Every structure is written in C-alpha cells, then in structure tokens.
Amino acid sequence: MTRPDGPAPLVVHEQEVEAESWDDPTRGTLSFRTLFGGVGTRTGEFTAGVAELEPREWLGLHTHRQAEVYFVVQGRLRLRLGDAEHDLRAGSAVFVPGDVPHGVENVGTTPARIFYVLAAESFDQVEYVFPE
User: Do you know which SUPFAM superfamilies this protein is assigned to (predicted)?
Assistant: First the structure.
C-alpha cells in the first residue's frame, strides 16, 4: 500500500534484519540492526534500530548533526553526554540534541540493548564524527 503523500506502512521483525557491527579503537565495539531507514525500509522521516553491546563493549564518543533518542531496553550503561556522565538502566530514555558529543559503554555483566531513533530519513544521511 503506497500512500499518495509518502511511504507505505512497514512492519519489520528485528531478527530478520542483518546485523552490522563496528570493532575498532575509534568507533567502538558493538552490533546494530537498522530497522527503519535502511534499504527497503525508508520512512521519509526518521531512522530507527536496535544496538547491542556485550559487557565492556562501547560506542565511541561522537557527534552527528541529527538529534537522537535512546531507550534502554536491557542492561546497564554509562552514557557520556556533553560534559556529563549518566548511569542508564532498562527503562532509561535519553534525548541527544544534534551536534552534542555522546557515547556509551556497557558497564554491566549482561548484554545491553538500546532502541535508537535518529532524525534522519536514512542511516546513510548520518555522518558520525569521532574526535581524533
């Protein structure tokens, strides 16, 4: 079903989306699945997905121009947001304005899962900037 004013409704099952991962000393070590905003799942409005970090895995401090929301589904994380650090747990929600430095680390003993939403039409539009 295609709406005349935009994309069609979509239903996506997380386990049917191929996982991507980063494993390097700048970006960090984590896996993620882009549920909306990837190839075949364009919404025209936002990008959303689920990231998973095993114990001691992390997403490096970075910025991007788009605002972002995190919702912690599982686990314990330490978030650096601007100049402050915050301890997060399942049920924690975070709003990150565009261009604000942020990064997370799994400080728990079990996997952590984060549902994220970016104010970008597709993941390809998000340019991650990591400090050197």
Answer: RmlC-like cupins
